[in-house]
Amino acid sequence: MPPRPLIIPIFIPHQGCPHRCIFCDQHAITAETAPASTQIQLETRIAEHLATAGRDRGPAQVAFYGGNFLGLPRRTLTALLEGLQPWLDRGQIAGIRFSTRPDTITAERLAWIAPYPIETVELGVQSMNEVVLDRSKRGHTAADARRAMEQLQTKGYQTGIQLMLGLPGDTARRALTSARAVAALGPDFVRIYPTLVLAGSALASAFTAGEYTPLTLTEALDQAAMLVRLFHQHRIGVIRIGLQAAEGLEDPAVVLGGPHHPAFGHLVYAQLYRAAAHRLLAQLQPLPQAPTIYAPPHEISRLLGHKKANLDSLRRMFARPRLRLAAQEGLACETLRCADRTQSIWQPD
Description:
- By secondary structure, the chain is α/β, with parallel strands linked by helices.
- The protein folds into two domains: 6-262, TIM Barrel, CATH 3.20.20; 269-344, hypothetical protein PF0899 fold, CATH 3.30.2320.
- It has 13 helices and 13 strands.
């Protein structure tokens, strides 16, 4: 398997956005207070990442996040892309990626970026449900997302889609329906984020007034696990679950509510592994008094769960205090074994 590319993020908080979505505060999410839009800022960020990257990394890509890249004025957008040219010429950067709104994907704007080595475009879709999009004040429709994906795929770009859970008006059923609609679009990958109530956002006012109730952590984990299963069935990679760790997100004055956890993605996969272990034990008859469930070495932390919560839960559920969870070489990825039985974590309940 080739090494993953080195992603060098350049944050442009709120830049290019036609308005502020109800949930948004990019300064809190990215821990950036000013956009990295000047040549000096670009040079500093890129030099830092290249200097600290390991030798086994893949090719470097500069990624513009945190704003609406194709919503930038053409002069600003061109300056950012042209500012990368020295690193491109020296071969230190192999490509460029960015995130943008679906309604900014137009033939005119795609022509603006055509001369540059753009490899990946991520769409901030968030939901494919019109009620959810309207209540979240997104300002675009599900049809915009479909049109955008068609144009990007026709041009040959790698595509990603960002989805959010727990937005105003959303439900578990609507989230699943949105995910199915996204899978039908055939993106190369997706990201899944739980909605947090960030101070300074319009959602914070609704939350304070009792007009919005965020998902609990349990609800968010259940929905995220459901979506991860769906995308796996469609062979679509989920490259991130939960927000990137940022100093501000640990401040209760910044995150007023919602299912925040610094290891959210790990908790989702731990839930999938616990469910698989439960199915495996339920198949064993009679169940040994001291069973051992094995996982591949690099997956044992997911089987154990956060602070060994899976181990404790399985011991209680099956009344087996001597149950063990251990690593074993040679097991296929995402596969568990106990006695003479194996169980994929993706096998349906």
